[in-house]
Structures are given as structure tokens and as C-alpha cells.
Design brief:
Layout: H1 13-32, H2 35-42, H3 46-53, H4 56-63, H5 70-78, H6 85-98, H7 100-115, H8 117-139, H9 143-162, H10 166-170, H11 173-187
Helix pairs in contact: 1-2, 1-4, 1-8, 2-3, 5-8, 6-11, 7-8, 8-9
């Protein structure tokens, strides 16, 4: 059992927890990894993990080097007029990917999930549980429609920022939003 309280001497505890979390998420997926298990592997009390990171979801975001917590963006997407959610989703994706510093972790993640089944499982479990299922429930649409909207956006960012297809690379965000927002709106509007 891990000791309670702060360790004596210089602290590298935060980094040890992150390393333990990365191993646990990689080996067990998002759903299989537990806060207690990660804390035990790091040699700390679970309360210390909560002190540093809050929730398992927040620890995952830090451990995977996400530039933002996708679940924290959900209230922003849901606020505002329902008939403009397609535009808000498109603008959020373009803003996140348009920033070169924010784009790097996303690119690394995409490359990882494309070539590693464990990474794909981990990201899939996290995204389904913390974003896609919640968005589907909040909008009153089937999960398939929300997943299709996510696929639409991932395809867009792949072509614009990874493949760098000239029509998309050269287009302004407003031009892309004008094209893609109605499609997203259709996916995210209850029938």
C-alpha cells in the first residue's frame, strides 16, 4: 500500500505519476486503467494523484499531451443557438488545428493511432466516453451521427494539415466553415 502524504526529498512525483499513467493507459486502455492502479504503480496514494490532476480524464489529457481537454470544450459547443452548433464545431476544430503549437500533439496522436492498435483503443475509449457519447446525448441524436461528424472533421484536418491538399490549405477558415458547417449541423440535429 502506498504511503499517504508528501514524499521526503526532491519531488519528481508528478512526472512519475504521468509515466505510470502512460504505461497503464497503453497497456490497459482508457477504460481498463484505474486511478488506484496508476497511483500504486507510481508508488503514491490515490489522493495525491487527485491532488495533482483531479480526475482520471484530466490525467489522461496530461499524459497524452493533449493541448486541450476535449471534454472541457463540450459545454462551449453546446452553448449558444442549437442551429449554429455545426459552425461552432467547425470553428473549434479549425482553431485547434490552425495553431502550429497545438497541432503537433494532435499530429503525433494521429500517427500513433494509425500505426498502433493499443493507442487506437486507448484514444477510442477516451473519445467515446468523454466526448462523443456525451455530445450525442446532449443533442438527442444517435451516436452514429456524432461519430460521422467527428469522422468528417478528422478527414478535413487530415487533408488540410497532414496531406496539405492545396485547395484546403489555401482556403480561409471562413470558406471551410461555410462548406462544412451545414453538413455538421445535419449530423448534430435531431430528426
Amino acid at each position: 500500500m502506498a504511503r499517504a502524504g508528501r514524499r521526503p526529498g526532491p519531488t519528481e512525483t508528478r512526472e512519475q505519476i504521468i509515466a505510470a499513467a502512460r504505461r497503464a493507459f497503453a497497456e490497459q486502455g482508457y477504460d481498463g486503467a484505474t486511478v488506484r492502479g496508476i497511483a500504486a504503480e507510481a508508488g503514491v496514494n490515490a489522493a495525491l494523484l487527485h491532488h495533482f490532476f483531479g480526475t482520471k480524464q484530466q490525467l489522461f489529457v496530461v499524459a497524452m499531451n493533449f493541448p486541450i481537454d476535449p471534454a472541457e470544450q463540450l459545454p462551449l459547443l453546446l452553448s449558444g443557438p442549437p442551429e449554429q452548433i455545426g459552425e461552432r464545431v467547425a470553428r473549434l476544430f479549425l482553431a485547434l488545428w490552425g495553431d502550429p503549437a497545438g497541432r503537433a500533439p494532435f499530429l503525433a496522436m494521429l500517427r500513433s493511432v494509425a500505426s498502433n492498435e493499443q493507442a487506437a483503443t486507448m484514444l477510442r475509449q477516451f473519445m467515446v466516453r468523454t466526448v462523443l457519447a456525451r455530445l450525442a446525448e446532449a443533442r438527442g441524436v444517435p451516436p452514429l451521427r456524432v461519430t460521422a461528424a467527428a469522422a468528417q472533421m478528422i478527414g478535413l484536418v487530415m487533408l488540410r494539415y497532414v496531406v496539405q491538399a492545396p485547395p484546403l490549405v489555401d482556403a480561409t477558415d471562413d470558406e471551410i466553415v461555410e462548406l462544412i458547417a451545414p453538413v455538421l449541423q445535419n449530423y448534430l440535429t435531431p430528426e
